[in-house]
Amino acid sequence: xxxxxxxxILLGLxxxxxxxxxxxxxxxxxxxxxxxVVQGEGVDxxxxxxxxxxxxIVIDTRTxxxxxxxxxxxxxxxxDKPVLYIINTHYHGDHxxxxxxxxxxxxxxxxxxxxxxxxxxxxxNHLAFxxxxxxxxxxxxxxxxxxxxxxxxxxxxQGAYHLQLLHLGKGHTDGxxxxxxxxxxxxxxxxxxxxxxIPYAGDGYIDSWIASLHTLHNxxxxxxxxGHGEVGGKTTLIAMKHYLMKLRxxxxxxxENGKSLxxxxxxxxxxxxxxxxxxxxxxxxxxxxxxxFMEYSFKE
Length: 300
Ligand SMILES: [Zn+2]
Prior knowledge:
Helix content: 40-55%
Shape: globular
Largest sheet: 7 strands, mixed
Bound molecules: zinc ion
Structural class: alpha/beta
Number of strands: 12
Number of helices: 10
Strand content: 15-25%
Radius of gyration: 19 Å
């Protein structure tokens, strides 16, 4: 039986059979000592905990302190070990605006561009953008910057765990990190992967996003913890890659046909909305087409 099969059985049991001590409500036990809090309120980003011998590594901190405290409460049901490190997979507020709740760790790790994007006026602009979503609890946010940064790759050996932090190139943003646990065939992708959900691509780079997912596709991976949505297997990653490839191909085709942005948006959105009707956040498709049109018309 593969790890993936075990995971799916566990998810099934969590939904229908097992008591909350195993499944902890919205917290999914991905493996022994690895848990992901999924389906938060508001912007539903995932937070993952890796519980090592001496303490906990937290990956992404949700949209605001109130949401982060809920995630921390989930962690405290499992362990009272201290938080050693925070990892921010990218700068977006739904992954970083809860950083202040985990400040006991003193160490927030991210790609160097995450710090740039959250620093000074950039960070304040991003916070102001998040405040337009109408979520409660945003007034409490104090931006806490990553204080340990890297450029291309970084490795952490902590207890029995070996984490590879990889910046595969531009993708969902210009500072994405995937956390790869090679020995466990597990990857925490940040927002390079949205499960069964149209991705936000407002500051994405479609071509290199596809390339990053293609690189990951070739890794030995059985479990994929996405930035948003349910934990899945490699098919979750492949589905995201295929969506982006279809977006790219269809937009390029319309540009080649001499279509305007508005015409392209209409034609491609209709096609993708029909094909991905079961996915969440279909309203993001028009924005995805906008972004792709900008990228590919610029290259022409
Ligand atoms: Zn994001």
